[in-house]
Amino acid sequence: MNTQKKVFLLPYKCQVVGWFIAGAALLVMIGSFFFGLDAMLLVRFQIYGMLFLYVGCFLVGFSREKTEDEFTLYLRTSSALTALLVICALRFLLHTVLAILQLSGPLEKDFHDLLKDAFDGFASFGSVFILYLILYKIRLGRYNKEMADEE
Amino acid sequence: MKNNIRVERAVLRISQQELADAVGVSRQTIYAIENGKFIPSTELALKLSAYFGKTVNDIFSLD
């Protein structure tokens, strides 16, 4: 369809490479806990693992499907919108909690750090992308399963 | 929006995959349109109608 020519996506082969990189990074990250590494090396493994996991997910999320058309584009945009909505709502909720708690006096350092970690972690911009990827792949997989069941 | 793509496909005895290949989309797209889960663009609606040799109004109608 002509509409697809306006959307920039990486070639399908990048998705295959992306799955491989993300899988390998996840294995290394999980495996590093069982190798008995010293703390410094363990942190290094986690940092590089996370970097490669992001690279892999990026390639998977922004590569074309075998047949990329207006339906996959619809699934991508609706998943991205849902992901953005969920994370924005989460950030709004966390801000509200923070504001209410501030009314009753200064927060304890540990609790303040916990909230800060929440903002930097699961309510961050990176989470929008990860959630988009999960939602998009689940929806696409669900249609594939429904089609297989129909046969 | 309703459509009778499934019926037209049955008349021509073609599979979802064959129709998808003919109009240049994926099989998921045809499945989603047939089940009313996705409304196609004007361009795709015209391609589908042309493939069946009918007008868009013959294939698609409002609920």
Structural overview:
The complex is a heterodimer of chains A (151) and B (63). By secondary structure, chain A is mainly α. Chain A is built from 5 helices and no strands. Chain A is flat. With 63 residues, chain B is mostly helical. The longest helix of chain B is centred in the C-terminal third of the chain and has 11 residues, at 42-52. The relative contact order of chain B is 0.23. The interface between A and B is medium-sized, with 18 and 15 residues.
Radius of gyration of chain B (CA) equals 10 Å
- Percent range for helical residues of chain B? 55-70%
Query: Termini separation of chain A (Å)?
Result: 27 Å
Q: Which residues of chain B sit in consecutive blocks of at least 5 with pLDDT less than 50?
A: none
Shape of chain A: flat
How big a fraction of the residues of chain B is strand?
5-15%
Question: What structural class do the secondary elements of chain A suggest?
Answer: mainly alpha
How far apart are the termini of chain B? Answer: 5 Å
Identify the biggest protein-protein contact and residues per side.
A-B, 18 and 15 residues
Low-confidence sequence ranges of chain A: none
Overall SS class of chain B: mainly alpha
What assembly state would you assign to the polypeptide chains in this entry?
heterodimer
The chain-level mean pLDDT of chain B equals 93
- Tally of helical runs of chain A: 5
Averaged pLDDT of chain A: 86
Give me the side-by-side strand order of the main sheet of chain B.
Answer: 1-2
| Largest beta-sheet characterization of chain A | none
- Number of strand segments of chain A: 0
Share in β-strands of chain A = under 5%
What sequence of helices (H) and strands (E) makes up the elements of chain A?
HHHHH
Rg calc of chain A: 20 Å
